[in-house]
From TrEMBL:
Top-rank lineage group of the source organism: Bacteria
Segment forming the signal sequence: none
Pfam families to which the protein is assigned, alphabetical: DUF34_NIF3
Entry similarity comment: Belongs to the GTP cyclohydrolase I type 2/NIF3 family.
Protein name per the record: GTP cyclohydrolase 1 type 2 homolog
Database matches in NCBIfam families: YbgI_SA1388 (TIGR00486)
SUPFAM superfamilies, sorted: NIF3 (NGG1p interacting factor 3)-like
Length: 373
């Protein structure tokens, strides 16, 4: 039988927590990691309705886009509206994991899914994640030192490329050295040039681990003065990051794009700021409360930003800089991702019963204007 930990580990692989914003709270947030799981429910938010559904349906794990306990909570009581759902889940043994902004920014996450629905092409992040600075470390060792040196370097943090660890490359060659009067060479004698069969071993190393890696290599190398080269590496532009920007197959007026976006989002009611006749070719997307991406959208040449929520003064800012703004609603821009996630979990774990919450709904209702007398 599956456990909470297994599903949470898959979720971490799909939407790595390193993609989350620094202020966010993501991962397995509630429950017993070792508890068995047969039924998983995804939802946008843990509410009284979604919690009741989970308990009623015997769910072992809720994957909620929005995190529980997002802000500091001093009391978790059954009679407080904010924490009553958690009390129910605790009594029923239901765990909760949240990917939130890591899911927003994942390679095939919420924003990428919105781009697919909108028919965008050549999609890239609005705010690419800066590649971590790194070095290539090259050390020359006799064959007999190879395993010890690699073990030390790997243990100190070198040799990781993506999800692969203990990566290195070795080239055989011949090294020479001549020890001075104060030396005590491991091979040969001082005062005479020696030629030794050696390996050139290369591995990558994060900048933050460089000092530890060098110390580990020296501690395990048999030479009195091991030869070590350190080369800085340039990071290529990342394909990961927050928000997305892409192009339409052809230009279309802002008003026509907005109507098509409404259809793509299941008939969502949209607010639009800008000249409805303005041609749109490049579209920026930021799900949820994403109006902070307006400047990024303008900088990268987008004619419109589609997001879930926008503050009044951000709308005025969009008008002033000539960028259209399409506000589709928080629920409308993120609920499709929750539904997609349920399908992904079900494919990854065919033995589990997985579904998106059936009782969850947009908390905002559309009320028609009453007829005038």
């Amino acid at each position: 039988m599956r456990t909470v930990t297994e599903v949470a580990a898959w979720l971490e692989g799909f939407a790595p927590s390193r993609l989350a914003e620094s202020w966010d709270n993501v991962g397995l947030l509630w429950g017993d990691p070792d508890a068995p799981v047969e039924r998983v429910m995804t939802c946008l938010t843990v509410t009284a309705e979604s919690a009741d559904e989970a308990v009623r349906e015997g769910v072992g794990l809720i994957v909620s886009h929005h995190p529980i306990l997002f802000r500091e909570t001093k009391r978790i009581r059954a009679d407080l509206p904010a924490t009553a759902p958690l009390w129910k889940l605790a009594r029923a043994g239901v765990a909760v994991a949240s990917p939130h902004t890591a899911f927003d920014s994942a390679t095939d996450g919420v924003n990428a899914g919105l781009c697919r629905r909108l028919g965008l092409v050549d999609v890239e992040p609005l705010r690419p994640i800066a590649g971590a600075s790194a070095y290539k470390v090259v050390v020359f060792t006799p064959e007999s030192d190879r395993d010890a040196v690699l073990a030390g370097a790997f243990g100190a943090g070198a040799g990781r490329i993506g999800d692969y660890s203990e990566c290195s490359f070795a080239i055989p060659g011949r090294g020479t050295f001549l020890g001075g009067e104060s030396t005590d060479p491991t091979v040969g004698v001082k005062g005479r040039r020696e030629t030794v069969e050696e390996l050139r071993i290369e591995m990558v190393c994060p900048a933050a681990r460089l000092a530890s890696v060098l110390a580990a290599i020296r501690a395990r190398h048999s030479y009195e003065e091991p030869a070590i080269d350190v080369y800085p590496l340039e990071s290529p532009p990342s394909s990961l990051g927050a928000g997305r920007i892409g192009g339409l197959e052809g230009p279309r007026p802002l008003g026509e794009f907005a109507r098509a976006a409404s259809e793509a989002l299941g008939g969502a009611t949209l607010h639009v700021a800008g000249d409805l006749g303005m041609p749109v070719e490049r579209v920026a997307v930021a799900c949820g409360a994403g109006d902070d991406f307006l400047v990024d959208a303008a900088r990268l040449g987008a004619q419109v930003l589609l997001t879930g929520e926008a503050r009044f003064h951000r709308v005025l800012e969009a008008r002033s800089i000539g960028v259209g703004l399409v506000v589709a609603g928080h629920y409308a821009t993120e609920r499709p991702g929750v539904e997609d996630l349920a399908e992904r979990i079900a494919r990854a774990f065919p033995d589990l019963h997985v579904w998106p919450s059936r009782d969850e709904s947009d908390p905002l209702a559309i009320v028609a204007e009453p007829p005038r007398p």
